[in-house]
Amino acid sequence: MDVTALREQFPILDRRVGDHPLVYLDSANTSQKPQVVVDAVADHYRLHNANVARAMHMLGAEATDAFEGARAKVAAFIGAGRPEEVVFTKNASEALNLAAHSLGAGLGPGDEVVISVMEHHSNIVPWQLLCERAGARLRWFDITGDGRLDLEKAEAEQLINERTRIVSLTWVSNVLGTRNPIADIAAKAHAVGARMVVDGSQAVPHQTTDVVALGADIVCFTAHKMCGPTGIGVLWGRYDLLAEMPPFLGGGEMIEVVEMERSTFAAPPHRFEAGTPPIAQAVGLGAAVDFLTGVGMDRIEAHEHELTAYALGKLTAIEGFTLLGPAEAIERGSAISFNLEGVHPHDVMQLLDSRGVAIRGGHHCARPLHRRLGHQSSTRASSYLYTTHGEIDALADALVFTRDYFAPKFRG
């Protein structure tokens, strides 16, 4: 993959921060957008703007075709059986809330929901709220010392059992980078009659995805981490399951017939898309899917794997550097979280920014995981298809500078 040529399609990567070139290493937070995505959104507003499904004029037909065309592109991109299995939401958080609300509608006392301690808050809080409403019990996978799911402990504790109704796990951790064995866990969940929900936000943008082969019942992800716009996410679900689930939000377009006494609801996916949807954002997501498909997801995955291995070797050689998560690029994503001895992550983030390196500091919406690891917070560097080896070198140099600035004992 010619990363230099690829970077030319991302105008923002030419920016400078003072005297330093921008080194963007916060793609797990949000990815940058290629010009084709920016143009697609602008052209929609400039030439085709109208509401979908309602307006019968030419612009309405064009907008509807573009919106539903984006749905078809996403379905093909993730290996869905049919476009109607793709529900557009505001973001992955809303998609996971939809799953918790609608999939969990029949839960009651004695039922159990299983998550893990490595989840993003968006895959913790909705299930907490569900269990509080239903009187169900929330349980979770622990992790091993190297940041993997503790499958042996889970087996010993019979974490997934005949009372389990839903298992919801991240595919790739946004902190540890750990890639979880979703297909194996889905098989265990299905063996006891439970549903499998997957937070794919850190996986779908980075690797070839086949939701059917994954064995999940629902997969959620978001556009803005995969070169698309903010304001739109995706819930994929098996059609027969979606057809059984009650609506999440009420309003226009999600209905079949409305009477004053009662209403009936549209078939999936529109049952879950109340009101005017994110039309221009869907057009942008469709353009992002075309862009990623053109580059090749296998090539993107191979580039990131090699780059992550390089970064792990480079960064772990720094004295005072503590890695959170797997130390080898095996079943691992590209997010690398760490701490520098004697330096708060917010100070690391600020000083790196002064040298043009954009990273994230904090608990990354995963506070329970940080508490489990014994860290108040951490610093995270995350790469993507446009990241270069030179940018990893710039990160390493900036970290050494920062460490020495705050901790004189490391100076020569």
From TrEMBL:
The protein's enzyme class: transferase
Cofactor(s) annotated in UniProt: pyridoxal 5'-phosphate
Domain Aminotransferase class V: 23-395
GO MF term set: cysteine desulfurase activity; lyase activity; pyridoxal phosphate binding
Taxonomic superkingdom: Bacteria
EC number: 2.8.1.7
Sorted UniProt keywords: Lyase, Pyridoxal phosphate, Transferase
SUPFAM superfamilies: PLP-dependent transferases
A biological-process GO annotation: cysteine metabolic process
Record field: catalytic activity: (sulfur carrier)-H + L-cysteine = (sulfur carrier)-SH + L-alanine
Cleaved signal peptide residues: none
CDD domains named in the record: SufS_like
Similarity remark: Belongs to the class-V pyridoxal-phosphate-dependent aminotransferase family. Csd subfamily.
Official protein name in the record: cysteine desulfurase
Organism of this sequence: Tessaracoccus oleiagri
